[in-house]
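Lab meeting prep.
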Amino acid sequence: MEVTVIGAGLAGCEAAYRIAACGHTVRLIDCKPDTASPAHRSGNFAELVCSNSLKSDEPTTASGLLKRELRALGCFLLREAEAARVPAGGALAVDREVFSHRITQIIRSHPGIEIVGETAQDWNVNELTVIATGPLTVGKLADVLQSRIGGALHFYDAAAPVVDAMSIERAHCFAASRYDKGDSDYLNCPMDKDTYLAFVSELVSAERAQQHAFDRREIFEGCMPIEIMAERGVDTMRFGPLRPVGFVDPHTGKRPYAVVQLRAENNERTMYNLVGFQTNLKFGEQRRVFGMIPALAHAEFLRYGVMHRNTYIDSPRVLDVYSRLRDFPNTFIAGQLSGVEGYVESIASGLVCGINAVRILEGKPPVTLPDTTVIGSLYRYITTAQADFQPMNANFGVLPPHEEHIRDKTKRKERYCERSLSDLYEFQKANDLV
């Protein structure tokens, strides 16, 4: 039985190689070399578009732990990344041209992979298919996908930063709802006048990320970057997302001058996002400027705010934990289209789809990795119901917390790593994945 993989980016190549390496036939459809998206530079597969870095390789980072999980699972692209590696301290960086060239050669020469150079318009829902067309998916395929999943497709990612709950200065915030109506679902971070004015000054002058041509669009009032809002007047934010009305700071007994609200990002409340803080600031500037908010002075950012072109499905509504469309269980969604964010996360998604496609071909049930792994916890996150789903990258905030409280941050992360790799090994043995 043949598996169709649509898209030869990071996720598509990882899925195709895993399926073919297990002795099955793959039909890999990609628009290259005749057509390229605005982000592509060459006719090679698995291009790294914006950076040659695959982030940290240190075990006490979520990205480093994710790589260890992938290596344990026999990840093809990480093996090739090592072959194309260039010095970058504790990060895994590659020569981008060497990396994509090596992968293209291997994929094109594999006897189990047939390359079809065309732009996919549709797919057969009765045949095993992995759709991995990436964040710039458009055209007829996007229209068909949109129709089949009931409109649950987004084309632009405007997400606020997310911080680790344990890094929030609780002495400088309070839980309350506006006018004490309903449950206290928000953490409220007050600022006095001097702090607020200094914050506005730094916000409007902070350095912004340079956008690609395909990322630019008109600024819609519904998701205006917080720095643009600040430019419109010193009090604009105080009449918008930072309005203080309806609150009394229990530390002062008075209404604050401005209030930044934090909303829980998951049911465990291990992550909080900054409400209304969609931004195009550079990541370092987000850490610096948003750190001026007293409650966030020592905040650990699990995800930075982004505003970019990004096609992704509303995964909690339509995706199961095995990365299949619930209404079309022969169809897997891989890569950023599935709601994961980042290069290595996309590779992991492709590997999960490849593993489960092979299991179905061999008459075995699909699997989902343990929640204690970064891969498993990411899938739990993107498939768990939530009011306003945004794509997520690998971070320790999505992992279930330790049963015992570990105050030391480094030790806590070391324990995450130990637990993940131990549970993954036992999972592999139990499911014949070793």
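Slide two material, second protein:
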Amino acid sequence: MRLKARGTQNEGIPTASMADIAFLLIIFFMVTINFEVDKTTVGLPTTELRYEIPKKAAYISIIASGQIRVSSGEEISVPVPGPENVLSFAVDVVANNPGKPFVLKADKNVPYRYVDSVIDALKQARAEKIYLLSQQDTVDGADGGDG
């Protein structure tokens, strides 16, 4: 008795699920990526101790020439003309999100009057926590120090 072959099977790698895998990888990377909102490059002053800053803080950067850039922590930082604009920015941030911390990132060569005027603007806006960024190893616990 002779048996007939039913058909030949093509050898190959099944690619039907490749699109599903690619789609899942895209979703994974979209969910896990962190964007840096303040890309202003400054030479930070050195300190003995530095606390870790909160992830969702508002940023204010001052470069050596005195230019000020602001970000609420959810968009890329934009330049502002002066400290009076920092006050209006901070008032808006505090009104929309009371208790949101502010991170002041000033170049080590910036004149202190610029830093002082920004801190005064933040105080007038009733900012509860102000972190001054510095260059040093960090210590766990952002709530451990007074900003």
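Talking points for slide two:
Residues 37 and 100 are 16 Å apart (CA to CA).
Residues 50-144 form a domain with the Nucleotidyltransferase; domain 5 fold (CATH 3.30.420.270).
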